[in-house]
C-alpha cells in the first residue's frame, strides 16, 4: 500500500496545478489504515499535499484511530480502506520448497490449481530441507534448514515475476525444524534445532531494512514446533525440547506489543512436527 500512496503523490506532483483537484478523490482509494503506523507518522503526515487538504487529513485521522484499536475491534470496521487488496491477475498456486529425497534437495515445484498441474520453477541457490517457508509482501521466503551437512542460518527469497531466488540477510543463529510465520510485516523464526540443542530463541526479519533482530525468547526450547498467527498474536505449539526426551503439549503466545511470551492452555496430547 506504500507504493499506492507514493504513486498518487508522484502523479499529483508531476502536474500539480492541473491535478491537485483530484487529490481527495484519489486518496479515498488509498488504504491508509493498512499502512504501518511509523510510515503514517513519518511519511504520510509529513507530506505537504496531505497537510493542505482537509479531506485527506480526515483520511489520515481515520487511519491513526484504526491503529489505536485492539486487533479484535479492527475486524469490526468495514469500509473499503480497511480491506486488504486482493490480486486479480495472479494465478492461485502452491509452492513446495526443497525437502529430502532422500538427501536435501534444491528442487522447487509450483502447483497450479486451475490447470491441475505441477511445474518445476527456479531451484534454490543451495540444498535445503527442514526449513521454514512463508509468504510475505508478494515473495516466498525459505528460512534456515539443513543442507545435508549443517544446520544453516541462510535465507533465500523467491520473486515469482522473475522466477528467481535471491539470498538475503542471514539469521543470527543456525536453525532447522524451526517454526516460521508473518506478523505485522515481520517474518518470525521460532525455535528450531542448531545441530546440538533445541532453541528457545526467536528472531524477526524486516524486509524493509533487510535485517534480523532477536525478540524475547520462549520459555521452553522447541524444535519441530508448530507456529501460527491469530488476532495479532504469535503461537508456538508443542515441539520437542531435547531435555525431557519427550514431545511437548505446552503452548506459548507471543505479544509483539509487550515483547513477551506467556503460556496458554496445554494441548491434551504431546506432539511435535505439527
Automatic annotation (TrEMBL):
What InterPro entries has UniProt attached to this entry? Answer: BACK (IPR011705), Kelch-typ_b-propeller (IPR015915), Kelch_1 (IPR006652)
Signal sequence annotation = none
UniProt cross-references to Gene3D superfamilies, sorted A to Z: 1.25.40.420, Kelch-type beta propeller
Q: Name one Pfam family in it.
A: Kelch_1
One Gene Ontology BP term is:
protein ubiquitination
The question of whether Nucleus is a record keyword is answered with no
Keywords assigned: Kelch repeat
Residue ranges of every copy of the BACK domain listed in the record: 1-45
Protein known as: Kelch-like protein 3
Native source organism of the sequence: Neovison vison (American mink)
Its gene is KLHL3
Amino acid at each position: 500500500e506504500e507504493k499506492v500512496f507514493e504513486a498518487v503523490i508522484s502523479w499529483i506532483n508531476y502536474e500539480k496545478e492541473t491535478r491537485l483537484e483530484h487529490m481527495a478523490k484519489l486518496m479515498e482509494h488509498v488504504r491508509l489504515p493498512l499502512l504501518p503506523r511509523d510510515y503514517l507518522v513519518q511519511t504520510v503526515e509529513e507530506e505537504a499535499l496531505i497537510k493542505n487538504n482537509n479531506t485527506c487529513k480526515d483520511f489520515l485521522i481515520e487511519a491513526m484511530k484504526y491503529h489505536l484499536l485492539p486487533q479484535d475491534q479492527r475486524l469490526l470496521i468495514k469500509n473499503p480502506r480497511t480491506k486488504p487488496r486482493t490480486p486479480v491477475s495472479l494465478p492461485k498456486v502452491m509452492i513446495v520448497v526443497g525437502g529430502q529425497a532422500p538427501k536435501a534437495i534444491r528442487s522447487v515445484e509450483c502447483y497450479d490449481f486451475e490447470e491441475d498441474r505441477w511445474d518445476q520453477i527456479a531451484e534454490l541457490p543451495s540444498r535445503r530441507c527442514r526449513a521454514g517457508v512463508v509468504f510475505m509482501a508478494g515473495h516466498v521466503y525459505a528460512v534456515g534448514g539443513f543442507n545435508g551437512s549443517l544446520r544453516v542460518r541462510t535465507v533465500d527469497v523467491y520473486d515469482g515475476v522473475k522466477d528467481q531466488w535471491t539470498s538475503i540477510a542471514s539469521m543470527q543463529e543456525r536453525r532447522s525444524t524451526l517454526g516460521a510465520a508473518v506478523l505485522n510485516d515481520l517474518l518470525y523464526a521460532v525455535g528450531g534445532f542448531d545441530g546440538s540443542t533445541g532453541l528457545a530463541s526467536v528472531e524477526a526479519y524486516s524486509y524493509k531494512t533487510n535485517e534480523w533482530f532477536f525478540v524475547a525468547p520462549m520459555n521452553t526450547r522447541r524444535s519441530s514446533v508448530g507456529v501460527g498467527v491469530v488476532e495479532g498474536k504469535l503461537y508456538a505449539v508443542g515441539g520437542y525440547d531435547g531435555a525431557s526426551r519427550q514431545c511437548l503439549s505446552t503452548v506459548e503466545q507471543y505479544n509483539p506489543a509487550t515483547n513477551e511470551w506467556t503460556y496458554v492452555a496445554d494441548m491434551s496430547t504431546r506432539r511435535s512436527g505439527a
